[in-house]
Each structure stands twice: as C-alpha cells, then as structure tokens.
Amino acid sequence: MQRILVALGLMATLVLGLACERRGGGAASDTGPIKIGVYADLTGQTSSFGQSTKNGIQMAADEINKAGGINGRQIQLVVEDDQGLPAQAATVVTKLINQDKVHAVLGEVASSNSLAAAPKAQEAKIPMITPSSTNPKVTQVGDYIFRVCFIDPFQGEVMAKFAINTLKAKTAAVLTDVNSDYSRGLDQFFTEKFTKMGGRIVERQSYTQTDQDFSGQLTAIRSANPDVIYVPGYYGQVGVIAKQAKQLGIKAPLLGGDGWDAPQLFQLGGDALNGSYFSNHYSYEDPRPEVKTFVDAYRARYNVIPDAIAALAYDAMKVLADSIRRAGSTDGQKLRDAIAQTTNYPGVTGTISINAERNAVKPATVFELQSGKYVFKENIYPEGMTPPSTTASPTSSNANTAATNANSGNASTANTNAASTANTANTANR
Amino acid sequence: MDTFVQQLINGLTIGFIYALIALGYTMVYGILRLINFAHGDIYMVGAFSGYFLAYQLGLASEPSLLGLGAVLIGAMIMAAIVGMTIERFAYRPLRKYARMTTLIAAIGVSLFIEYLFVARFGNAPRSFPQLLKLPGWLPQALQPDQNGNYRLFGRATISIVQMLIIFVSILLMLILQWIIYRTKLGTAMRAVSFNLNSAKLMGINTDMIIAFTFALGSSLAAAGGVLTAQYNPTIYPLMGIITGLKAFVAAVLGGIGNIPGAVLGGLLIGMAETFVVGYGQNIGIPSTYRDAVAFSILILVLLFRPAGLLGSTVQEKV
C-alpha cells in the first residue's frame, strides 16, 4: 500500500513538474504556426452542427494557409470532439488551452456547451469566438468571449414580429426543450415580444431531448387551438414533433429558430414540415459575391449545400484570422482587443461588426419549409440597423432575393409587406 | 372529452411499449433474481436491427404490412441472439458468485453496448423508415385518412401506428401467456423460477431454460423498439437508457417477477406520464414534471405495497 502511495506521489510530482515546465515555454510566442483550437459536437445528438462547424472552419483555414497564412505564419487547427455534452466541452477546451497551447478557441453551436467551456477560455485569457451560440449569456461570461452571430432576444423577437405582422397570428402555443439554455432563452424573448405586440400565449408545454413521444404535449396544444406553435428546439426533436403534430391533425404552422437548420430535419420530419417557418442566419441563394464564392467552394469540397452553421463557422475563422493580422501578434490581450475592434467585416452571413457586448449585429432571415427546401420569406433587421432598401450593396442584393422570392409566391403584396415589416422594425427601435 | 380520450390513447400507446420492455425485466428477475440492466439497450439493439433490416431488404422504400412483419420478426430474432449471447458470456460464468457480481456485470454490459454503438454508428439520431401501409385492396371505409388517422368522435382520433402498437403488443402478450402456461418450456420456466436447484434435480436443463428466458425477453424488447420507431422515427444508441429505466420502474411498480404486474405497471406509467403532460398544468404541475410524477407514483406504491401492485409477499430466498 505504501509503495503504491509513494509511486503515486512520484508520478504526481513528475506530471506537475512537466506541466510547469511546459507552461513556462512561451505560449504566446510570435513565431511558428498559429494554433487554433476547435471544439464541436462531432458524434453526439447535434453532430450535424459539429460536422458543419468543423467543415466551415477547415475550409477557411485552408484558404488562408494557401494564400500564405497570416503574416507569414500558417494556421494549425486542433479539433476536439465534445460529444455535445457541456461537461465534455469544458474538459476539451481545458485540454486545448493547457496541453495544446492554442492561441484562440472556436466553438460551439449549442449554447449550453459554449457556456460550459467559455469560463475556461476566460480564465486563461485565451480569446474564444463562438460561431453560432445565440444565447446572450455566452458572451457575458467575460471580455474574451465573442460571437459572430445574432443573439436570442433578437431571434425570438424576429419570430414574434413575423407571427404577428406577416402571419397575422393572435394566439400562440410554445413547446420548449426544457434542458436547453438556447430553447428557454428563445421562448422567453418570443413570449415577451409576442404578448407586448398584443398576442396571447394560450398553451405552454415542454419536453426533454431524451423524450420518445410528444403526442401528450401536442394533444394539449391542439385543444388550446393556437394560431401558431413556437418550437424553439433542435432539429432532432423538431422533425418528430412536426410529424406527430400532423398525425394529430394540427394545422397551425410551427415556428422555430436556427436550431432547425440541418439536413436531418427533413429526414425526420418529411412533408409534415411543409408550411413551417424558422429564422436563420443566411440564405445560400443570396446573390452577394461572398455568399456565392463560399457556397460554390463548399459544394465543390464537401458535395453538400452549406447550412448556416457552416457559413458562420467559416466567418468565425475568417474574422479571427483578420483580427490576428491586425493585432500583428497572437498574444491573448492584443488579439482580444483586435477582435473587439472588428467593424464591417464582409462575411458570408452578412456584414459583421462586434458591438460593446461582443456580439455581432446582423439581420435574420425567415424561411418557409416546402418539400425539403428553404423558401426565403423576408429579412428582419435589428435595432438601429438600416434596412437594405435605403443602402447600397451588399445588403441591397438581399432585397432582390426577397423580391424574386415573393414574386414567385403570392405576388407583389408579399414584397411590400416584407419591406414594410423591416421598416417598422427599424422605426420601432429608434 | 375528445381531448381526454386522445390523451388516454396516447398514454395507452406508450404504456404498451413500456409493458413490452418491462416483461423482459420481470421474467429474468423471476428466474435469476437478477436485474438485467442491459435490457434497455436490447430495446435499442432491436430498433437498430430493424433499421438495418429495413434498408437491407429494401423495405424502406416500399412500405407494406408484410414487410413490417418481416422487419419486426427479424429484429426480434436478432435481439434474442444478442440477449442469449450476453447471458452466455457475461452472466452465466458469474452465476456461482454473489448476486451483486452479476448485477455489476449487467451495468458493465449496458455501458459496453451503448458506447459500442456510439463508436460504431455515432450518437446522431437516425430516421427509422415508415414501414406501415395497409394493402390497397382494403375497402375505402377501412383506410385511414391522409395523416394515417381513424376518427373516433369529435377531434379524437387513433392513428394507424397507435392501433398497430396496441394490437401487436396484446398479441405478443397472449403468445407469451400461451408459452408460459401451455407449453413444456413454459412449465420448465415456472419450475426454474420456483426453485432453480430443485428444477435441476428434476432433470430440467436449467441453463437452456435461462437462455430461453433471455431470448423471450429480448425479443419482446426488440418488438418494442421497432414499434416505437414507427411512432417516433428517431433512433440513437442511447435511446434505451431512459426508456429502459421507466420500463424497469413499471416492472417494479407492478411487482417484479410478476408477468401481469409488468403489463399493468407499464400501462400505469404510460398513462401517468401522458396525463401529467395533458392535465398537470390545470393543477399547477408543468409538463416538465412528467418523469418526476411517474417516479413519485413508484415511491408511493412501494411505501404501501413493497412487493408492488400484484407482487406476492413471498419471503426472499437466501
């Protein structure tokens, strides 16, 4: 027994000694490859998100390296799988920072995972950019945490405005994923805006990701007879919910957020999803040159149409690279300041400016689902942002998409409607 | 009223699934006094077997009643083989040691199966193909509407999948009842359950009977897996954890070791869950509490009837 203890003690000293030694070696050296840690759900319940994130980041990094790297230094990615588990996300980010000595961290998609990992990056003063976690709490963790996507208060409001202004809904039911920070956040902001605009929430139900059956919740919702049903969950459950809702003869459209955005949604939900709406970060049919170049390159490389998660991941990598270039260093402090100063970066998912809360200010796009396709409905703009009709390119091309799509739908009324919604949104915020 | 009937049907449907799985727990317990924690994962293995069979046989693209039957039986056979293999290599060598040893081995087997599947297939949910389709020659009156529903009255409907689950479950339970009470194997099972050593002395091949019990239980769980997948088409390697746990609770609730008890327990848990979701809000219990309520019922029942609802208060043999 004593021998074992002695051996253990020796081992502990060794490990500690090594760790200290490695810590001493300049982590923030300004030569050699730039190490960037990526953590994503590659095998878990939301692995579609993780794979898209990895693909987007990988493509951006390869493009940068091919063009000669950043200030002559190549990017080296270190990718870790967190299996979609918050505890695991915290562990792998600790590993990326302490063991791999990365200069910056990119990830996650699910807000619960980003929230678990962000404190580790903050403590070590390593800048972290989340491509697509929309819960506001994520960047509130500290001044080293950034994001290149919009946040849930905005996304929830977008759907509330869309439901009331465009769908003319008066009542809504909400069905939330109770264990997800993302889902509960969206629920809260949708409910606030919807009731403020004169709507009424008539039924409130919840589920967990391990649930096998949603018909109990849906039957209760059916008897409340809402005009719309807000389901701010992830694609894995939403597909099934849509199917069971249809089986129960529910006709009210389902509304959701960017958690729906995955090819698997249609495999699970099929035609039951027709006529549902969700808010997202970008449209792959957007004719802006940044989008077109990205979509073409992504399709050539991975043979699928990039979802918003992939586009945001690509943007996150590009914004990070741009910041490193401007900082002229990979020193944590300098790099943090450079990311915070990002303004009007022309990203795939729109023009990215980081605000004082370290969030990106961008419009959201609402889509309708029709037989396995996303049909563009309208763009809804955040507070204080000028709608595209009054500005020149690149945003004006967004309006073109709106116009063409609306025309293919129900004539020009839809078009003016979309424009007026954007305008009211804008004026209301001032 | 129609909402009440609808929730009743919803509850019955998942109740029967829990009952099918609970039967496996209760039979194995009845014979070996072992809680087979890997049983929930057998349910998952059944669903995955059905998934691969459906694609291998090309039934995913052209659903038919016959194809569904083939997938169901195929999955049951595969799961039976897996169940017997687990018994042969993980439990039988440990049978001579303390019961706790086998119990820990069961937890190990459970984790092994789960993460073997995660490693092999990933944990992302897969979409199980819809296999149920009534033959076209049936008269129009017997065909469901375009959503696969039959209207009962008002807004209350029963979907064809729900009917399938209820019908197949009852059929399988009747077959099980026949095997246990009307065949020689069943008589031997009852004898082993009564006293393993005496049964052995009477010339019963107990190893064979135990293997057969595992095969029976596993095939019922697999049927549950395939039927659930028709109802909720997402399958993933960890799907058996919570469902298995609830089925285990159902078995204990009804009185573990007691076959009608397992069915009763399953139906009760299924109904309790659905009614908490449907009506809990009226009395201040949000739908999030559905599992908490189901498990509270278990605690209450055990406080007043420690042997479960239908369990007999036989002294535990030591």
Q: Can you summarize the main beta sheet of chain B?
A: 2 strands, antiparallel
Helices and strands of chain A, in order, run as: HEHEHEHEHEHEHEHEHEHEHHHEEEEHH
| Percentage of β-strand residues of chain A | 15-25%
Q: Could you say which structural class the secondary elements and strand pairing of chain A correspond to? A: alpha/beta
Radius of gyration of chain B: 20 Å
Strands across the major sheet of chain B, in which order?
Answer: 1-4
Spatial separation of the terminal alpha carbons of chain A: 72 Å
Computed Rg of chain A: 23 Å
Q: Please give the oligomerization state of what you see.
A: heterodimer
- Main sheet: strands, sense, barrel of chain A: 7 strands, mixed
Order of helices and strands of chain B: HHHHEEEHHHHEHHH
Fraction in helix of chain A: 40-55%
CATH domain topology of chain B: ABC transporter involved in vitamin B12 uptake, BtuC
Helix coverage percent of residues of chain B? 55-70%
For the record, the CATH class of chain B is: Mainly Alpha
* Spatial separation of the terminal alpha carbons of chain B: 51 Å
Secondary structure layout:
The complex is a heterodimer of chains A (about 425) and B (about 325).
Chain A: H1 2-24, E1 34-40, H2 47-66, E2 75-81, H3 86-98, E3 104-106, H4 111-124, E4 128-130, H5 137-140, E5 145-147, H6 152-166, E6 171-177, H7 181-196, E7 200-207, H8 215-224, E8 228-230, H9 235-247, E9 254-256, H10 264-269, E10 277-280, H11 289-302, H12 308-327, H13 332-340, E11 345-347, E12 350-352, E13 364-370, E14 373-380, H14 396-408, H15 411-429
Parallel strand pairs in A: 1-2, 1-3, 3-4, 4-5, 6-7, 6-8, 8-9, 9-10
Antiparallel strand pairs in A: 10-13, 11-12, 13-14
Chain B: H1 2-32, H2 39-56, H3 65-91, H4 99-121, E1 126-127, E2 149-153, E3 156-159, H5 160-182, H6 184-194, H7 196-201, H8 206-231, E4 234-235, H9 240-254, H10 259-279, H11 290-304
Antiparallel strand pairs in B: 1-4, 2-3
Helix pairs in contact in B: 1-5, 1-8, 1-9, 1-10, 2-3, 2-8, 2-9, 3-8, 5-6, 5-8, 6-8, 9-10, 9-11, 10-11
